[in-house]
Amino acid sequence: MNDFINSLSIIIVVYNTALDDSESFQSVVAMVGNGTPLDIFVYDNSPNPQRIGEYPGLRITYFHDPKNSGVSKAYNTGAAHARQHQNKWVLLLDQDTVLPYTILADYEKAVAQNPEIDLFVPILRLANGKIFSPCTFKFKRGFYPDDLKLGVNPLDRLSPVNSGMLVSVEAFFSVEGYNEQVKLDFADFQFIERFRKRYPDFYVMDVECQQDFSDDEVSYSSQANRFKYYCEGARNIEKRGVWDWLQYNGVVFLRALRLTGRYREWQFLKTYFNNFLFPNHSKP
After folding, report:
1. Of the candidates 157, 183, 159, 158, which has an alpha carbon nearest to the alpha carbon of residue 43?
2. Glycosyltransferase 2-like domain spans which residues (predicted)?
């Protein structure tokens, strides 16, 4: 186990959340054993920095980004930290994932038994029991699968989300990491599109984690702000032609309609036009 721990960096991205309050960090703290300290890279996108205390069994590197450059920049920076320290694996986490304290042993076992695989993921479930990741990815959007086949799966049928992905550092950089122009929404799908060009398969472990999905936010202001990132992500993601653009346009437009109906506010359609369709026209 110590050999695997020595080869691992855990990247946690937080925003406007104290590290101690992050469910992902709380899960990591529970993983600490009596052996090699865990290497933790915390990327904080909050406006103000926070003081990071000392934790037994954890070696924490803290990086504050008041510009809120997004999760893609965060994971690229964390992966660069891992490569600098000659670590072989990175475990990507957001701030809202609850992981079992035994999950590192599960990763280690899966890696040892599947040396040809460079991407390993657990199953993420929402509070309502639906499978959140890996999801079925069709027409440029994710759908909840009814069930999953454990073990090796093709990335052209399923797509995991960011949190919980264990990725080989070598493979990460061989596909040029994350697209930093896609700051939040679509960041994971963009990474997987890049990744599967070189590495067609990934491994789904027989391990479940609980995910708090931010789309469950009910306030209008939160959804309005999030939808701007959604539009910008869809606009900036790499596209292979007109058909790709048309699919993303359909996804964003339908989401704008759903949010308009939910909140009885026209702002979502305005954001669709100003941040996706005609972004240059919205600038002074």
Report:
1. 183
2. 9-101
Q: What is the mean pLDDT of each run of 10 residues along the chain (284 residues)?
A: 92 97 97 86 98 95 98 99 98 98 97 98 96 91 92 96 98 98 95 97 98 72 91 94 94 95 94 90 50
The CATH superfamily assigned to 2-214 is Spore Coat Polysaccharide Biosynthesis Protein SpsA; Chain A (3.90.550.10)
In the chain, domain spans: 2-214, 217-282
Per the CB < 8 A criterion, the answer to whether 275 and 260 are in contact is: no
What HEC string does the chain produce? CHHHHHCEEEEEEECCCCHHHCHHHHHHHHHCCCCCCEEEEEEECCCCCCCCCCCCCEEEEEEECCCCCCHHHHHHHHHHHHHHCCCCEEEEECCCEECCCCHHHHHHHHHHHCCCCCEEEEEEECCCCCEEECEEEECCEEECCCCCCCEEEECCCEECCCCCCEEEHHHHHHCCCCCCCCCCCCHHHHHHHHHCCCCCEEEEEEEEEEECCHHHCCCHHHHHHHHHHHHHHHHHCCCCCHHHHHHHHHHHHHHHHHHHHHHCCCHHHHHHHHHHHCHHHHCC
